[in-house]
Amino acid sequence: MKQAVIKKIFDTLIYISFILVLVFACRQKVSVNIDEVYSYGLANHYGSKSIQIEDGFKYVPSEEVYYNYVTVFDEHRFDYINVWNNQVQDVHPPLYYCILHTICSLRPRTFSMWYGFFINIGFAIGVLLVIRKIVDLYTKGYFVKSLISLSFIAMTGIYNAVMFIRMYVMAMFFVTLFIYWVFKFIKDKDNFREVSQYIILLLISVGGILTHYYCMVFFGLFTFVYAICLLSGKRIRDALFFCVTMAVSVLLSLIIFPGMYSHFFLSGRGTESFEHFAYNEKFVAQLSVVANLINKHIFGGLFPILIFIALLGLIVALVKKKIEIKAGTDLIVTVVPSLMYFVLISRIAPYGTDRYYFPIYGVLFVIFILSVSRAIKVLTKGTAFKVILAAILVVVSVNGWLVNEWSYSEKYTEDAIKFAREHSDLDCVFLYERRTRTHPAFFEVKNYNSVTFANCRKEIPDISTMRPDGDFVFIVPNTERQEEILDLAYKDGYICEYVGTSGYSNTFWCQKQKKEY
Hints:
Elements: H1 2-27, H2 34-44, E1 58-59, H3 64-70, H4 80-89, H5 95-105, H6 113-138, H7 142-153, H8 156-163, H9 168-187, H10 195-209, H11 213-232, H12 236-256, H13 259-265, H14 268-278, H15 283-299, H16 303-320, H17 329-348, H18 361-379, H19 382-403, H20 414-422, E2 427-432, H21 442-445, E3 450-455, E4 472-477, H22 482-491, E5 494-501, E6 505-512
Parallel strand pairs: 2-3, 2-4
Antiparallel strand pairs: 1-3, 4-6, 5-6
């Protein structure tokens, strides 16, 4: 009884520790990028999916134009029809945005990154819970289960995903839960005869599809591989039931959100994906970049070494102990679809970025743990097994924190934001080439006394009618046209001092020079 209490206390401490580190990671975030502003805008903005900017209008306070986009107005609280309509115009399914809109509706006309963090933290805890459930399917050893749990909460990949205020942690949860449910099928064939098990599998799949379409990509690849495994074992009935369930999940998702069809076949992002699938000259480069990022996030940058050690150990065990090594169905149906997903997404994705692979991070972690554990068990057992497994996971975790870059903290914007806070009395003139590229400057611009926007995509406007007579802040596109635009201020007798960047734009402090007589 005492031992059971101690285990419960330790389990509670694991979850508390995870929450504390998640909160710590979120607090390191300085600003938001273009897609994160879109998260709030698509969840809350009424009437259109895009920010509404009136060129030449002086916004006072400067945050007004952004808050009109990212916050909920009182009359549109819990307006899910609007969320639905925004997503039809956009390229993503609506489930994540409905949840974010619900949270924002509780505090209308306010903005906080924590509204998005709450969603990510909640689903990250869910991923840990599911991973512990998966471990329970394969071992009853409390030490190993705790070790794997600690290894997961030390995995930098989960914190990179949580810091990014988008739907990817939620997608990770559904994909990991999907794997757990299928593992239950693999471990107990009786589940194939339970209608309730298929219903739950259906609901998990629909939840994933309505969170992100890449979940559907993984589910489809998984179903293809798993069906082959079932058919190879002459389990035709089981393969048919499983495939029908997954097909119904797609059909049900389409019925719930008909906008899926236009997203796939009519939207720019959908047609772009098909074009990239046919030909993508950046495919190899994107594959390499993402492989390097995943290696750092999950394997601490040590994946080649770990594979070498695992294979060497298995070969030695095979030669010396004459052990017959068989790949289990569970390992096949996670490794093969994951590799297929990795290659396919690298082929069709518009950018070589880790975010598109966040949904399978939980799966990759499980593959890693199962593979390493099995390899070590071939070589040794008992205390030696625990020590070796612990040593490997500690090295991977520590090295992961050493090599991780924390790109989603947006720390590169610190200088611009700090300047804005220290010079909040200044007026700001913001020239942009695309309205959406004003998003990353949100946390900077909102501090100034006012902001006046102007589109300079086709021709550079006259800023003399927008700027004050004294010093002002000039935000210009980070392009080859920057010097040409700054000449507008130089000709009017200003000296422009660079103070920072928001990615798409650079910020300059333009100081009026006194005439000498």
